[in-house]
Amino acid sequence: MEKSLSFRARLVLRLLGLMRDRFANISVKQSRAMTQHLGFPLPKGTTVTPVAEISAQWIGVDSSPPSKVLLYLHGGCYVQNTPKTHQAMVARIAISAGACVLYVDYRLAPEHPFPAALDDAVAAYKWLLDQNIPHHNIIFAGDSAGGGLAVAAMLRLQEEKLVLPAAAVLLSPWCDLSMNGRSAIEDRDPIYSRQAFLRFAKLYASGVPLDHPFLSPLNATFKNMPPILIQVGERELLQDDAMRLAECLREAGGTVQLSIYLGLWHVWQVYPAFMVPESQMAIEEIGNFLRAL
User: Fold this and answer.
1) Which of 121, 169, 202, 204 has a CB 3.0–4.6 Å from the CB of 109, allowing a cystine?
2) Is residue 54 part of a domain?
3) Active-site annotation, residues
4) Cα 103 to Cα 56: distance, rounded to the nearest angstrom
5) CA-to-CA distance for 143 and 152, rounded, in angstroms?
6) pLDDT tens-digit readout, 262-277
7) What is d(CA 15, CA 239) in angstroms, rounded to the nearest whole number?
8) 140 domain-assigned
9) Where are the strands (E) in the chain, listed by range?
């Protein structure tokens, strides 16, 4: 996406950059507390309905047909949930894609280390199938840790010989918890540090080697994966994760659309368009990708 950053995006980036040192040393408790104070306005007509059977929420907007479902797995380094920041984003995706969203509140580390989050993601998919929603109407989606979790869930489903969803949308996916990609080693991200990601990765892994394929899907063997859209910012730690994942999937014969947004940072899509106009460009790309399935 070869367009210079808007003035508003540059301003938001500058403000976020002032927090980099704090993010590097933030504790799990502080990280969770911070997300409780962050939130963006929901689109008009958005409904958020708890699901009794599993730990999840239905998120929809007036005209969203329930036949197409995005199973959404949030980011947060496996240690925090982000409903106040992410509900608005997934509602915007629902509008753009003509879908509704099952937002999965998977268990968090360190209280519930690996494979708790993976178990919950797979269980949510099986629950959707039990609701008579066919697999070809289900799309996995996730950002950061949730993006890597979506890939790991598809690998687990293949291991269990279950049918995969129709497609996946991955926003800045974290697919190498050892943080050995070039962009991670360079530690060039204007907001987040490699140190912080590694610290939270170890909390989630809880002694399991970080190169385990269900923790770091870049170490997996791919085959027969559905079409996947990957979006990543050019200035973030996980750019290399996205690029390497796209390469692995293509080498395995998969269909991958990789979009690198120049000048943008980790999961910029979460910011409303009035703050970061480029977020709406990304949301519209997701909608176009899913409507074309």
Assistant:
1) 204
2) yes
3) 144, 236, 266
4) 5
5) 13
6) 999 999 999 999 999 9
7) 21
8) yes
9) 46-51, 56-61, 69-73, 100-104, 138-143, 167-171, 228-233, 256-261
